[in-house]
Specification:
By secondary structure, the chain is mostly helical. It has eight helices and four strands.
Amino acid sequence: MTVITSKKEGLEPSDTARRTIRVWDPVVRLFHWTIVTACMLNLFILEEGKYWHRITGYVVAAAIVIRILWGFVGTKHARFSDFVPTPRRVRDQIFDMIDGNEKRYLGHNPLASVMMLTLMGLLAATALTGWMTTLDAFWGEKWLEELHGTIANGIMVLAFAHAGAAIIQSWRHRENLVWSMVTGRKRT
């Protein structure tokens, strides 16, 4: 994890604001916005269990597979080795936030890493349970449909929490984190 703990000396704030570095590569950004779009479609627009709902679920499954592979071979901040959180890192970030000494990270911070990995796991579980409902062995099984729906609702809650945290962290660090997921760039 790349942590930024001190300000650059000799630079005016306007100079610092203009200096950026590429953090999120196109694969990471495409994965992120594919998942956002798919979740919006399947949770709020498309009819459950119908053709386009299922196709969207398969797109999510493919995106997860690609992202997992990219987590091992991708660019620095895309690799799991750069951001997989340890309990100590998570604890330290929480205490730093409480103390008002929170560090700024170029890539995912420990809590964001927990959120990302949790969402990826839930997305995979939703894709799996959705696919299972199409199999003869599970056709019409209410428990599986309910599990699928419960996991999807969990994704919705966590996605809103994730978006809210991105907005709060943007304000706290005076940096538009949502825009950085569009451009791939963050300030140095």
